[in-house]
Amino acid sequence: MATLDSKIPSGPLEKKWEKHKFDSKLVNPANRRKYTIIVVGSGLAGASAAASLGEMGYNVKCFCYQDSPRRAHSIAAQGGINAAKNYQNDGDSVQRLFYDTIKGGDFRAREANVYRLAEVSSSIIDQCTALGVPFAREYGGLLANRSFGGAQVSRTFYARGQTGQQLLIGAYSGLCAQIAAGTVTMFPRTEMLDLVVVDGHAKGIVVRDMVTGKIEAHAGDTVILATGGYGNVFYLSTNAKGCNVTATWRAHKKGAFFANPCYTQIHPTCIPVHGDFQSKLTLMSESLRNDGRVWVPKKKEDCGKPPGEIAEEDRDYYLERKYPSFGNLAPRDISSRAAKQVCDEGRGIGSTKLGVYLDFSAAIKRLGENVIRERYGNLFDMYHKITGEDAYKVPMRIFPAVHYTMGGLWVDYNLMSNLPGLHVLGEANFSDHGANRLGASALMQGLADGYFVLPYTISNYLVTQAGKKVGTDHPEFVKAIEEVKARTEKLLSIKGKRSVDSFHRELGLLLWDKCGMGRTEASLKDALAKIPKIREEFWTNVNVLGDGNDLNQSLEMAGRVADFLEFGELMCLDALERRESCGGHFREEFQFEDGEAKRDDEHFAHVAAWENVGEVAKSVRHIEPLNYENVHLAVRSYK
Amino acid sequence: MSDTLNLTLKVWRQKNAGTPGKFVEYPAKNIPTDCSFLEMLDIVNETLVQQNIEPIAFDHDCREGICGMCSLVINGVAHGPERATTTCQLHMRHFKDGDTIYVEPWRVGAFPLIKDLIVDRSSYDRIQQAGGFITARAGSAPDANSVPIPKQNADSAMDAAACIGCGACAAACPNSSAMLFVAAKVSHLALLPQGQPERTRRALKMVTTMDKEGFGNCTNYYECEAVCPAEIKSSFISMLNREYAFAAVRDGVSVI
């Protein structure tokens, strides 16, 4: 298909980005203010892009649904950010970070993108330090590192257990400087509800002011979506309550291809579900696995006993047993699946039997409680607040939960979608993580896209748009506003019997059951049959109270859930068509005897990018082949 | 393992800033002790929707204590009875069966009410925009290890930088002062070598903006420190006072 040109530069891998930067078009500094750039989302990717483009002199409009850009969910990332600095002198390099990331993604990411990510990783640490991010330091004043899953070097930079918070405050403060300078106009409590396409180019957005309910349009020369992932389609996830798929889904319905929606990351270390009132799941950072040991009882009959009464020889440290060289730091997809396996065998712990222990007693004995407190104090406090248990005394109980989504809108090497003028950054795009993301790589990708990739590549599109400005009085804008208004009125007019939340929960439970950690052809077909029925009931029986000209949280959620009800179907469709197991996508029909994921490189070493043609069920699957010229496709082993 | 509670809520309901608000009583029945305060409100809202009553509007997002979006004055205390805990991390096991709980919005002049329990905290953003940053253009930074920072300075900066910007400090203060917030921001950057070039200007502009937004003065009640979910210490307020005094002298502005 001619539509999927990845625009990967020619030449050797390590020269591609350098070459591309030189070959890219430039916009004269004096001309930049003539271009209006719309940025949706203010997390690491959105804030860093908006700030950088503002610094360069572009006229930027930035939108977020929260009351302040500083609240975007990047803030919740705990553990750290990777960079190939090799400050630890332990053998790290750009090449090694590249290889670890490609392998971590189970050989389903683009080589050129991942190499570029590894290449710019060092600059991110420099930039964040310059912005005042208080990274952890050693007594000599130099930066400290820790290890993360899927790597055998220490390349993760961190700020206690609040790395995402500190990086976001850094990016936000840079954004604040640009808001003060007048280059960026910020629109908080404003939600994007549609994309406006004029003559095949993304030219603007329709938004709803969440305080006054006013629906209006904004026009620009290009639109950047940095709106995060779709994990909340499962209802329970580690995402913030407001995270949603609406911006990317609306863009998809306007022509942008959605790539690999079946790639969802189930994070191994979250606090287990403990009741049907539960509104979200809380992650316990992967960094805890540096010092915590994961185990379950060897014997089923021991599962009800307090952990302290189970003798050392009766414990199964299953990650250390199965993956001796990576041990407790095996990658997320592998650790999650291993937890599921032991629970499926009936050896899970806790009241629901869906849990495993993460035990710090050995580390406390070796290093002392103070060292553990210094490293992870805030995480232990958080665990205590939620569960009422003291993890210094008893092991944490953890279980996998939906955390991150590797799929997203398809983009080329310039981070532009197949829909011209639409750029997509961070978790919202599909580009760098393949079928599984390694820990501490999301922050790296978000900031790489915003600080060091898009500012170079965006001009390639902008130079083609000189003199092609479109105003919000254009018929396409008027039409898009009318459509959004009609949809809002429809949601408010149904006045059925069920709350928005009840539909969201129903969809989430179904997807977790049928398209969660394990998927089969039968389970996916079952989900595909049920989702349209839930959707149909939603549109006839949902009860959205209040009116549209006011702050109305039920209405906000209703619009998001309506989109999840369509998106969920595409996710299952993609999972059904990908007849292999890879990374976070585990099709139970395709596994080795020891339960490891079995890829099918001959038929599936490609990106699946879906085109919307109206009904979701009829979506068209396009393919971008993945050509590996530098790494050897191998069975991914962490043994 | 989960016990349940039956509670009476007295919730502040107000359609918008222009309409008077009032407390409305709602029963909260069979609330599991393992759920969070916001999950308790979710349960109550679900029952309200069943009765065709518009649900209670409240701000929230991450629900893991870090985004700073949730607020609520619970029984007169910002973020409720547990120390160093945001409302979203406050769990119902800290309440007793039969309790009556008053739930109100932040009441600060510089945080105008939007609806029910939601207020507008954009004044904090404007204070930050006045100078709460280090000007460092992307692409211009030196190697991160080229400037060593003593661990204790980096740690102190991190203590200040942990502020989640929720506004509880101003909500708890009898003067509606935002000093703890501004102190955290100014101290975080003043403690780092990268923050030195703009140090004077930052302190002056942030304090001036704070005053302009209508926040009150600090008269050392320390209610802010008591409610701060990020445990920002009031000693940073002393640091802000020093920063501001030095900055004012340097800039020739008179300090009253």
Write the CATH architecture name of the largest domain in chain B.
Orthogonal Bundle
| Largest sheet, spatial ordering of strands of chain B | 2-1-5-3-4
Helical proportion of chain B, percent range: 25-40%
Intertermini distance of chain B? 60 Å
The CATH architecture of the domain at 479-625 in chain A would be: Up-down Bundle
What oligomeric assembly is this protein in? heterodimer
Instruction: Write down the Rg of chain B.
Output: 21 Å
Provide the structure class of chain B. alpha+beta
The fourth-level CATH homologous superfamily of the domain at 479-625 in chain A is: Fumarate reductase/succinate dehydrogenase flavoprotein-like, C-terminal domain
Unreliable stretches covering 5 or more consecutive residues of chain A: none
- Please compute the radius of gyration of chain A using only Cα atoms: 24 Å
CATH superfamily assignment of the largest domain in chain B? Alpha-helical ferredoxin
User: What is the percentage of strand-forming residues of chain B?
Assistant: 5-15%
SS content category of chain A: alpha+beta
- β-strand number of chain A: 19
Number of domains of chain B: 2
First and last CA, distance of chain A: 39 Å
